[in-house]
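Q: What would this chain look like folded?
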Amino acid sequence: MPRQVFLYDPPDRFVAGTVGLPGRRIFFLQASQGPRVTSVSLEKTQVAALAERMDELLDEVVRRTGGNAPVPAVASTEAADTAPLDVPVEEEFRVGTMALAWDGEQQRMIVEAQALVELDADSEEDLAEAEERLLQDEENGPPMLRVRLSGAQARAFAKRALDVVNAGRPPCPLCSLPLDPEGHVCPRQNGYRRQV
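A: My prediction, written as structure tokens:
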């Protein structure tokens, strides 16, 4: 079956967002261009890793070009996108593998998110070989979201994504695990609640 690629070059909007209450949120990447909108779901840790790696890659581009690349040092407040996800949020696929790259000729950040795929393998070698074949196959394979962003768009995305990740439940001051509204049994207190 031919691979379905959702290409946005460039998108009008590319953001990370959530649906649901803290503690039960579902994370999405959403790209839009005109009336076309693509939403893919992923884990909170994937959003955090993508934003952090994107910032690191942009910092490296600035360092290697001596500041000549069209990449802002920090996200501008004018470019901040605080609007909610476009509705309806309809998941195209769940993200498994992500990739980042910088196109030096076009001065663009390339973000790829590929659908999660279950691979059957009898050994570690077979699994590694199957993963490699899957990644190398451009014509066939799982669906993929590919987005090409300017440096300013990439910085704005990374800032918003980190803000979305950090907007969840506050951490316990003792163990750093998220506090549940229903209550929290802190492992550092060995399950005991302090008497007031």
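The chain has three helices and seven strands.
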